[in-house]
Amino acid sequence: MIENVGDNCRCNGFSAILDISNSFLGCHLMGLFTFKPHRRTRIEETQRRFLLPESEEETKARHGAAWKRYRELRVAFPLVFLGWLPFGYIGGAVFRFFGWNTDFLMMLILAWIPFMSIVTWQWAFWQCPRCGYAFRGLIDPFFPKQCHHCDLPMWAVSSDE
User: Fold this and answer.
1) Exposed (0-12), middle (13-18) or buried (19+): which is 135, by Cβ within 10 Å?
2) 8 - beta bridge partners?
3) What is the pLDDT of residue 7?
4) 58: exposed, middle or buried (C-beta count within 10 Å: 0-12, 13-18, 19+)?
5) What's the pLDDT score for residue 1?
């Protein structure tokens, strides 16, 4: 919504924030739900590996890449979750110091919420490199020692461990 106040034109900050958040989440959800026939799911890959076993080097490389991604998400989660308030506070101080319009900063801070939920979702449902299902279960939701479905130990570089 745009209001005309004299010669100045001012955006309604809340509706702009909602529009940005909705478009960001909509784009992300469209990316999740689009049909990609050339991509196999992790479970299909697991079934394929059962029929056509891969070499030990391929397994180590695949597990190493998967655990690297898990480490990135495990570090990103607390940074994104706890970094929201300091970012808003420091950004607010900088914007007020230079006399800039804080409506833009408010949009950035509120757009952080969908970003935070996406990172949390990716970390919570990170897929096991062996079976392809979610590594965590309801019993040990934060720092599991092994896969909830196939009992693959944490940080295992081989499927035989």
Assistant:
1) buried
2) 5
3) 46
4) exposed
5) 47
Report DSSP state, residue 74: H
Q: Phi/psi at 137 (nearest 5 deg)?
A: -125, -175
Tens-digit pLDDT profile for the chain (161 aa)?
455 554 444 556 667 666 776 676 666 666 655 545 445 566 566 666 666 677 888 888 888 888 999 999 889 888 988 888 888 889 889 999 999 888 888 888 888 888 888 888 888 888 888 888 888 877 766 778 888 888 888 888 776 66
Residue with tokens 């900088």: 94
**Separation between Cα atoms, residue 146 and residue 150, nearest integer Å:** 8
Q: Which residues of 21-52 are buried (b: 16+ CB within 10 A; e: fewer)?
A: beeebeeeeeeeeeeeeeeeeeeebbeebeee
- Token match 């909509």: residue? 26
Count of residues in the chain: 161
Following DSSP, what letter does each residue of 20-57 receive, concatenated? Answer: HHHHHHHHHHHHHHS--TTPPPHHHHHHHHHHSPPPHH
Residue 148 in tokens: 């909830």
